[in-house]
Amino acid sequence: MEQANVVIIGAGVVGCAIARALSARWEDVFVLEAMPKIGMGASTRNSGVIHAGLYYPTGSLKAKHCVRGNILTYEFCKAHNVPHRNTGKLIVAATPAEGPKLTALMENARKNGVEGLSIVDRAGIRAREPHIEGDHAIVVPSTGIVSSEELVKAYARVATDQGAHIVTHAKVEKLQHIGGKVRVSSAAGEIEARCLINAAGLFADEVAAMLGSPMAKHKIYPVRGEYCELVRAKADLIRGLVYPLPHSDGLSLGVHLTKTLWGTVLLGPTARYVADKNDYERDREPIEDFARDAKTMVPELQAADLVLGYSGIRAKLVPPTEHGIADFIIQRDADIPAVIQLMGIESPGLTSALAIAEQVFQIATEILN
Length: 369
Ligand SMILES: Cc1cc2nc3c(=O)[nH]c(=O)nc-3n(C[C@H](O)[C@H](O)[C@H](O)COP(=O)(O)OP(=O)(O)OC[C@H]3O[C@@H](n4cnc5c(N)ncnc54)[C@H](O)[C@@H]3O)c2cc1C
Known about the structure:
The chain is an alpha+beta fold. The chain folds into two domains: 2-45 and 149-219 and 326-368, 3-Layer(bba) Sandwich (FAD/NAD(P)-binding domain), CATH 3.50.50; 89-141 and 221-316, D-Amino Acid Oxidase, subunit A, domain 2 (D-Amino Acid Oxidase, Chain A, domain 2, 2-Layer Sandwich), CATH 3.30.9. The chain contains eight helices and 20 strands. Strands 5, 6, 7, 13, 14, 15, 16, 17 and 18 form a nine-stranded mixed sheet that branches. Strands 1, 2, 9, 10, 11, 12, 19 and 20 form an eight-stranded mixed sheet that branches. The chain has a three-stranded antiparallel sheet with strand order 3-8-4. The relative contact order is 0.21. Flavin-adenine dinucleotide (FAD) is lined by residues 9-15, 32-35, 40-43, 45-49, 51, 171-172, 199-203, 207, 225, 269, 312-314, 345-351.
C-alpha cells in the first residue's frame, strides 16, 4: 500500500493552501478530491472578497486568521500573478439610527487590528459611489477582490511544484485508524497516512463520522447564498464594494454589491438554510426580492436591471434553531492524534486560507516530527 506523510481530504482553497505549506517541509503530501476538478465547492462559489477582518469577535480564529490572511493573500497574489485588486469597501449606515451599530463595528475592527478605517458622511459616500444612498459609512481600505478560481489553482500549482500530489476523482469513502496511522480508501485506491487532514468543507462532519471521531458531533448545516448580476448597461452604477450593516442573525454580512475584476456587478449573497448540501439551484430567490433589498442602498435599481447569478453553500456550525456566529474549528483530534480536523470554515475562509495553513503546519509538526 502507498505510504504518505500527509493526506489532505478536499482540494478547496483551504486544502490547497495547506498542501502548499506542508509540501514545502515534507515529502509525500497527497490531496484527495472527490470532484473532477479542484476548487469546485465553496472556494469558487463566493464573493471573491479579500476581507479585512472587522466583523469577527476579537480573539477568535476568524478574526486572527482573516487579519493575517488579508496580508498574506495580497503578498501571494502579487508574487504569483493572481488577478486581484485592493479596492477598499464602504459599509453604509442607511439612517442616523444605524450610527451606534456602525460605531460598534468600527471599535471591533480596531480591536481586531484592522488599520486605516475612517468614517465618511453622505457627501463622502457620493464622492466614492455616486449612486449609493446612505447617511454615513465606514471606509475600509484593506478590503479587495481576487479571482478565487485562480487563487485555488495557484496554491495547488505551488504545492505540486514542491512535490505534492493532487488527485481528483478520489472521493474518500472509508477511513480506519490503525497503529497511529490512518488508512484512507478512496475512489482512487488505498493509502496510509501518518497525518490526515480533514479539509472537506461542507462534508467535514461526514469525514469525522467516517473516522468514528467524537468531533462528528459538530454538525454542518448548509446555508445557501445566492447572487444576482446587474445587467451590463447598469454595471456603472457601482464602482467598488458596498455593504450594508451585517445582519444581526449572524447568518451573513448582508446582501452587498461587488464590482468584479471583469467589470460586472454582483448583488448577494442571500442566506437561507437548505436541506441538501448539494442543492444549489432549487427554489431560487425571485429577482424582485433582490431588487427590493438593494433599493435601500441603490434606489434607482429595478428588477429589470438584474439577472440570476450563481450560488454557493456555506458550511455553518450553527443550526437553524439558533442564532449567532460560530468560530472556525481547527484542532488535532483528541481521540485520533494523527488527525487534524477543520470544521465550519465558512467566510472569511477564502481570505484566511494561508493563515489557516500556518496553524495546520504547526499542528502537523507535532504529529510528524
Ligand atoms: C456564498 C459564499 C460567499 C463567500 N464569500 C467569501 C468572501 O468573499 N471572502 C472570503 O474570504 N470567504 C468567502 N466565503 C467563504 C469561503 O468561500 C470558504 O470559507 C472557503 O471556500 C472554504 O474552503 P474549503 O476548502 O474549506 O471548502 P471547499 O471549497 O468546499 O472544499 C472542500 C472540498 O472537499 C471536497 N470533499 C468533500 N468531501 C470529500 C471526500 N469524502 N473525499 C474527497 N474530497 C471531498 C469537496 O469536493 C470540495 O472540493 C464565502 C462562502 C460562500 C458560500
